[in-house]
Request: fold
Amino acid sequence: MRILLTGAAGFIGSHIAEIIQDAGHEVVELDCLLPAAHGGAGVMTGDIRDPSAVRAALRGVDAVCHQAAMVGMGVDMADAPEYVSCNDLGTAVLLAEMASAGVSRLVLASSMVVYGEGAYECAAHGAQRPAARLVSSLRAGLFEPACPVCSSPLSPSLVDETALMEPRSLYAATKLAQEHLAGAWARAVGGTAIALRYHNVYGPRMPRDTPYSGVAAIFRSSLERSEAPQVFEDGGQRRDFIHVTDVARANLLASENLDCPPGTLTAYNIATGSPHTILEMATALATAMSGPAPHVTGAFRPGDVRHITASPDRARKELGFSASVTFEAGIASFATAPLRG
Reply:
């Protein structure tokens, strides 16, 4: 199979390129090398916002694995045009050219951020979807969402792919738009679209500490400077940390999957199913690097959600995917893994 891989030079894309090639497939790589992801390294092969570049890359292609995106929370609203341009306009150009070229298989890199807050249970009122946390509550150190019915504490649980999608950041809004665009494309052309909703991906080649980096890289950069990782809120935020090699394998399985019905978009949580808190991750990394213990700051970012962890059951049943790298082994290896400058 000949697969166009957008974002091929990026953190996740570079691992996907390797595993697809190792499986015997041919990879056509396309990347514009955004500085926030690549630090200027590598060779520019094209921008997905350029129809001519996409058209050339699609020649003879059987499927597309779409990883190209501007990632991270964003610094402020001034980032909005660039996020929408890179993520949504770029995806629209890609899909339009796929339709013209008759390429009908798409694997899309989506994200758990499309859900907003995760799933919660109230002891008295059952499943609940809390509203966005108020800045006044965060300033008072009240980080946990409360039941919208009785204001009692909620217990976080695992979200599945049928959950309401409620993005709460620039990046999240653009990822959800990508899913909607892919679904519209699939219905219009009878194509098959698979959206992989990544959870907190970490591992070798992760970009170093920038405003767009993942929290694992930010913590590691602090530890390399012999500084304590600065943990926001009280450190109790639950996340699902998944190793990049597992994410790459999920993309290979999705690219080879022939069972998803045409004319639809099918979403899969790509997660381990074993959540950890931010403080647990920072502590494990500090221990692995023999560095200072994390410092819990109480600071916050208004767009952050408290807990977002997901059930990987659908991916296991339908794609045959289960994460293989344990949290303990993954964080220990990440302590010395090469990062991008």
User: Anything to note?
Assistant: The chain has eleven helices and 15 strands. Residues 106 and 193 are 5 Å apart (CA to CA). Residues 37-44 have pLDDT under 50 and may be disordered.
